[in-house]
Amino acid sequence: MICLKGRKSMSYVQRLGKSLMLPVSVMPIAALLKGIGYWIDPVGWGSNNLISAFLIESGSVIMDNLPLFFAVGIAVGMVKEKDTVLSLCAVVSYLIVAKLLSVETVSLIRHISVEEVSLAFENSANSLVGILVGLIVAFNYKHFSKIQLPMALSFFGGKRFVLIVSTVMMLFLSSVLMVVWPFLYSVSISFGKAISDLGPIGAGLYGFFNRLLVPTGLHHALNSVFWFDSAGINDIGKFWGTISGSVVGKTGMYQAGFFPVMMFGLPAAAIAIYKCARPEKKKQVGAVLLSAAFASFLTGVTEPLEFSFMFVAPILYVIHALMTGIMMFIAAFFQWIAGFGFSAGLIDYILSIRSPYAHNIFMLIPLGIICGIIYYGIFRFMIIRYNLMTPGREIDDTLEEINENESNIILVSDDYDELAIVLLEALGGRGNVMYVDNCITRLRIELKDLDLVNEQQILAIGATGIVKVGKSSIQIIIGTKVGFIADSLNDILM
After folding, report:
1. Which of 33, 45, 252, 332 is the most buried (most CB within 10 A)?
2. Catalytic one of 89, 276, 371, 439
3. pTM of this structure
4. Which ranges of 300-363 does DSSP label H, i.e. alpha helix?
């Protein structure tokens, strides 16, 4: 029973990850448009150049409405039926929450001026809200789309009722967030101020929590402390000389450490995720991952990559946050300083060289290369060792599709390492095996040469079947213990 619940939870998380990939896939082009536009006009952001204005504003349409895209993508992706009602309901539901949490509406409800409204509501319609809306709409569709009302109200039954109940739930969600969100925002600001006097250690803590809070949108509160005027630090303004009080070697310390991560670390993580994808899915996920990696490197926009794995493999996201904190600390400690106006990508790195407050800026390149190597190694190891369902590794089999005969297989031994050694020999040896993965009952293996496979030897361990897929892939039906054998095989191969 516990195992069944665990599988259902994994399946739910996988569907969430897949649902996010559609809106994520449009983000790299938006990042590139904004980044190139900013490069053309780094001072005016379009006010001094028509082409720059077109590029920046075009990219902003996508990036600024990302929560809405999340709401629609998740609502549609989490439900098997592809119904247009889902999209309409998601759009309406999100717009309700966004409007109710806007500065103007809060001002009206609380009978205060716009200027008195908490700064928290300037970032209240964030990605987390979009994700929550999408999940609620999907839930409502599954449970209320076939409801039957009395004859007098029958027009509002069925799928129309989904919109009604979703609207009511959005009112409740907005009410809760209207109370909770300012508190969480103020806590984040207070925490930022508390660590602002810790020097390089504070920079490291800021980097860690900055990334950790991205899914919630609360990283904006931390940014206001270190980058702007909430605590008088104004790191960005001082680095570019628009605000007085700059100190060479210190000003920019809350920006510099992001460059190794965004230019090298996350792109390397994307390559690791791509390398660990199933062969048949590499083309499918490769375009998204590699374009997102390029966007991160060039412009410093990391959301396309981060949202691709933060929910399906949260341990990787925690590692990413830790690595960001470490890079921030190292850069601040050694006073390797660069700054940005847009984000910590190549464009801003080149532009920041001209700043008089850039200090030992070229040391960030070797630091970034080391950072990339570490990211690649850790991500590849964690994905393979713990069979993390990153993009391209999702289990396609559903619980309903599992044959009873496949789940009741008895192997000749409980020594999974020994079985793995036998299987590896039967598969043509270590040099013939390119990739090992598993679903619930089957080993999925990519080989260089299928002709080297000894089927009788494979069946001798208790496997009940071998399925050849294409010219280089096979599936071995082993049963529910398959995960242990897959781990042993990957341990040997690594």
Report:
1. 252
2. 439
3. 0.79
4. 303-309, 314-333, 346-352
